[in-house]
Design brief:
DUF1049 domain-containing protein, alpha+beta, two-stranded antiparallel sheet, transmembrane helix, transmembrane, elongated
C-alpha cells in the first residue's frame, strides 16, 4: 500500500510540476480597490488549500470526537460486571416408543 501511495503522490507531483512549467503566467486579481498580481500555479495551490484545509480540519475534529466516544464506550464495557450463572440442568427426553 505504501508503494502505491508513493507512486500516486509522485505522479500528482509530476503533473503539478508540468502545470507549473507550462502555466507560469501572471494573473491579476482585483478585489475592490486593491489589485494583486500572482502567478497562476500559486493561485491554483491557494484555491486547493482553501478547499482542502477546512475539510481536513473537520475530519480531524470528527476523528477525535469518535475516538473519545469509543474510549468512553470501551471503558463502560470494561467497568460493567457480568455475573455468570451456571447453565440450567435439563432432563434428557427419550423419544423411543415403549
Amino acid at each position: 500500500m505504501r508503494t502505491i501511495k508513493l507512486i500516486l503522490t509522485g505522479m500528482a507531483f509530476a503533473v503539478f510540476l508540468a502545470f507549473v512549467f507550462f502555466n507560469w503566467t501572471d494573473v491579476d486579481i482585483a478585489l475592490g480597490p486593491w489589485s494583486i498580481v500572482i502567478k497562476k500555479p500559486a493561485l491554483v495551490l491557494l484555491a486547493f488549500l482553501a478547499g482542502f484545509l477546512p475539510t481536513y480540519l473537520m475530519h480531524i475534529a470528527s476523528r477525535t470526537t469518535w475516538k473519545r466516544k469509543l474510549a468512553r464506550a470501551e471503558k463502560a464495557v470494561t467497568d460493567t460486571v457480568i455475573e455468570r450463572t451456571p447453565p440450567a440442568s435439563v432432563e434428557p427426553i427419550s423419544i423411543a416408543k415403549p
